[in-house]
Design goal:
single chain; about 240 residues; alpha+beta; Translation Initiation Factor IF3; 2 domains; eight-stranded mixed β-sheet; about 30% helix; globular
Length: about 240
């Protein structure tokens, strides 16, 4: 009887631990400001959330670049990476360095949204919820239709498989323009008499840069005839916008 009691107690303890909400919680469950950001999205089924604190604790691993491209470009998911849950600045910088090493681009921001733009990855860094447009995290119409039909779209051309060794991606930079920055004199002839006023309302600028990281191909039998050239090309995308 004592043995049976001990077994029953052990089983009860295990079942209690398994049913604990802490253990059952999804390690990718958004919290803090990330939860507020996702709550603003009308259709959040296409959002994949990564908490960098899980990477730091080794509870979860960073996806490889190929996995990230498949997730964002082929599956048309929206990725939200959250560094804000790491309390110490040193640990946060360490995880941001790992992010940079894994994907070839790094930011010192609290959050990064990764979406698809013209067949490549688009990185949008920001620090506060009000700095990002919730529409950026909405599932695209094609993804919603494909999800309903259960049809998977064919993979677009992947820059990793091109002949020339290179990686291409986009970076979105958003900046609000204050009234002070947009305040000018009412007259250039009578500056003091006419005073000044703000000429903008809710002004902002959104720039999208395309970045190409290229490396020269080997020429000759051992490639000694070709210099090991590394080229960075940065250009402004046509979809850059502004308002105000």
């Amino acid at each position: 009887m004592p043995k049976l009691n001990r077994c029953a107690i052990a089983i009860f303890t295990i079942l209690s631990a398994i049913s604990s909400p802490t253990l059952l919680a999804n390690i990718n469950e958004p919290s803090g400001e990330a939860a507020d950001i996702i709550s603003q999205v009308a259709d959040s089924h296409a959002i994949k959330y990564y908490n960098a604190a899980d990477w730091q604790a080794e509870d979860n691993a960073l996806p490889s670049l190929a996995e990230l491209r498949d997730l964002v470009i082929n599956q048309q998911k929206r990725v939200l990476v959250d560094f804000s849950q790491i309390s110490d600045a040193e640990g946060q910088a360490e995880m941001q360095a790992q992010f940079r090493k894994a994907y070839g681009v790094g930011f010192a921001n609290q959050f990064i949204v990764i979406t698809e733009h013209k067949g490549e990855l688009l990185f949008t860094p920001f620090d506060q919820a009000e700095e990002v447009d919730p529409q950026l995290l909405e599932a695209p119409r094609t993804a919603r239709l494909l999800a309903r039909s259960g049809f998977a779209s064919p993979a677009p051309a992947n820059s990793e498989t091109n002949t020339l060794p290179h990686v291409a991606f986009y970076i979105s930079v958003n900046r609000a323009i204050s009234d002070e920055e947009c305040t000018f004199n009412n007259s250039w002839l009578w500056k003091n008499e006419k005073g000044s006023r703000p000429f903008c309302k809710d002004a902002n600028i959104s720039l999208i840069y395309r970045v190409n990281l290229e490396r020269s191909l080997q020429y000759g039998i051992v490639g000694s005839a070709t210099p090991d050239a590394k080229i960075v090309r940065i250009s402004l995308d046509d979809d850059s916008t502004g308002a105000g």
